[in-house]
Write a structure and sequence with these properties.
Layout (H helix, E strand, L loop, with lengths): L6 E6 L3 H10 L8 E6 L7 H9 L4 E6 L10 H18 L7 E5 L5 H16 L19
Parallel strand pairs: 1-2, 1-3, 3-4
Helix pairs in contact: 1-4
The structure holds FE2/S2 (inorganic) cluster.
Length: about 140
Amino acid sequence: MNTDPRIISFCCYNCAYAAADLAGAMRVSYDPRVTIVGVPCTGAMEAVVVLGAFEEGADGVFVAGCLDGECHYKEGNLRARERVARLRERLSEVGLEPERLEMYQVSAAMGARFGEIAAEFVDRIKALPPSPLRRGAAVKGGMSR
Ligand code: FES
C-alpha cells in the first residue's frame, strides 16, 4: 500500500495534454500527485525517458497518446504502445511490477475520460508498495537501457 504515490504522466500535446486541460476546465478533478509532462508525440518518447522517471523515484508512469488513426505523426501512438509493452517486460525483469507502467489513448475532447484514467491509475499504484527505487533500495539487474 502506498498512500503517497508519485506518478508521472507523459501526455501528447495533441490529445491527452489538451484532455487534461479540458478536465481542469470542466472541474473534473484528478489526483494532484499526477504530474503531467507534455510531449510532442508519444512515438517520439525514448525508452530512456520512461525509465528515467522510474529511476527518479516515480511509483507509476502512464503514457497517454492519441487515439488510433489520430496521431499527427501517423503511427507514433502505435510505436509508443509497442514500446510501453516492451518496457513493461523490462520492468518485470528488474523486479518492478509491470502494472506500474501503462499506455492510454484519448482525444483532446475526452476531458472526463482523462480524469477517470488518472483516478484509476492512482488507485492501481496506491495498491502497490512504494517503488523500491524511490526507497533507494537496489533493484535486481539494474535499469540499464
Ligand atoms: Fe499524439 Fe502522436 S501526435 S500520439
